[in-house]
């Protein structure tokens, strides 16, 4: 299986949309109180605005001409203050490998690419959010060396 990873372009929108749908449907299923059903969770205009933003990066994994994975990231600057040190983060907003290609090493290849890309940007860390209700994702991220930094908690009042 010959996997290539490259920067996304405008022509990748339709294929990437099916992956964004898979991620969004998982969120809707896990937390229907927070997420609305939406067959177009990422509009073409928003996708293109991300491609044009120098601080945002979208890469796709392909097998031949088929897009089998997508990762969306954004560079963030933390400003030093009395409590925290200044630092640069590459934040992963979304990662999806198409269902038919999961557990074949593509996610690990994409994340190695992301780690190398982060090093080339000289960021201090690569971070992401993951739902506590997604043990498969947590296990995957732990398997590639990521650790829990913090945890958000809530109480639903209505």
List keywords for this structure.
Aminopeptidase, 26% strand, 33% helix, alpha+beta, 4 helices, 158 residues, five-stranded mixed sheet, 5 strands
Description:
With about 160 residues, the protein is an alpha+beta fold. It has one domain: Gcn5-related N-acetyltransferase (GNAT) (Aminopeptidase). The chain is about 35% helix and about 25% strand. Helix 3 links the parallel strand 4 (about 85-95) and strand 5 (about 125-130). It is globular, with a radius of gyration of 16 Å. The N and C termini lie far apart (about 50 Å). The model has no long low-confidence stretch (mean pLDDT about 95).
Give a short overview.
By secondary structure, the protein is of the alpha+beta class. The protein has helices at residues 13-30, 44-52, 106-121, 135-143, and strands at residues 3-7, 56-63, 66-78, 87-97, 125-128. It has one domain (3-143): Gcn5-related N-acetyltransferase (GNAT) (Aminopeptidase), CATH 3.40.630.
């Amino acid at each position: 299986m010959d996997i290539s990873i490259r920067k996304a372009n405008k022509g990748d929108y339709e294929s990437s949309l099916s992956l964004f749908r898979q991620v969004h449907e998982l969120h809707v299923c896990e937390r229907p109180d927070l997420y609305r059903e939406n067959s177009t969770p990422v509009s073409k205009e928003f996708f293109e605005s991300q491609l044009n933003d120098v601080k945002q990066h979208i890469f796709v994994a392909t097998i031949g001409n088929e897009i089998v994975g997508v990762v969306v990231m954004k560079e963030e600057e933390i400003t030093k203050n009395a409590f925290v040190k200044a630092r640069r983060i590459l934040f992963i907003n979304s990662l999806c490998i198409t269902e038919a290609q999961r557990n074949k090493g593509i996610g690990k290849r994409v994340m190695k690419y992301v780690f190398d890309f982060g090093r080339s940007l000289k960021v201090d860390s690569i971070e992401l959010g993951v739902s506590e209700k997604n043990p498969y994702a947590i296990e995957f991220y732990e398997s590639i060396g990521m650790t829990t930094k913090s945890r958000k908690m809530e109480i639903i009042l209505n």
